[in-house]
Design brief:
The protein is mainly alpha-helical and 152 residues long. Helices cover 53% and strands 8% of the residues. A hairpin with a 2-residue loop joins strand 2 and strand 3.
């Protein structure tokens, strides 16, 4: 006799091989609903916020400074808040890709001697610090293990 699942959402083993085009939207919706209902999203968010503020890179302030610099630059393509957000996210994405390809470390991928000069100062990487990413993955995995059961 099969025992009842101990978690609310059953995930087929084949889900590990899903691509964005083959993801099951109903399964994804079920998982998201349980994560929201049981407070796991808040736990993930609080964990990420704590990790960001505990990181020596001071990433939130770095992003704020970058956004202010963009606003003050006079760039005509940044005339609205959505345009500013798109540009900041694009810059973060670029630095994240560069950090991954250069084997970035704890400080967001910036290695000694690789910073870009900007008026005599190194341009800090806007990539999310690796420690923050690792913490986010760890907490998210814990939450998913509590709400999902992988079938056989």
């Amino acid at each position: 006799m099969a025992s009842e699942p101990t978690t609310p959402v059953r995930v087929p083993k084949a889900a590990a091989t899903y691509t964005p085009s083959t993801q099951d939207p109903d399964l994804r919706s079920q998982i998201n609903t349980v994560l929201l209902r049981d407070g796991h999203i808040s736990k993930i968010q609080e964990s990420l916020l704590h990790a960001l503020h505990a990181s020596p890179t001071n990433w939130p302030t770095l992003i704020q400074s970058h956004a202010l610099t963009l606003l003050r630059s006079g760039d005509p393509s940044i005339s609205t808040f959505p345009a500013l957000m798109s540009r900041v996210l694009e810059d973060i994405r670029k630095d994240s890709i560069a950090a991954r390809s250069s084997g970035g470390d704890e400080d967001g991928g910036k290695m000694n001697g690789t910073g870009k000069k900007n008026g005599g100062k190194e341009k800090e990487s806007l990539a999310l610090p690796k420690g923050v990413v690792d913490e986010g993955v760890r907490v998210t995995r814990e939450c998913l293990e509590l709400v999902c059961e992988v079938g056989e």
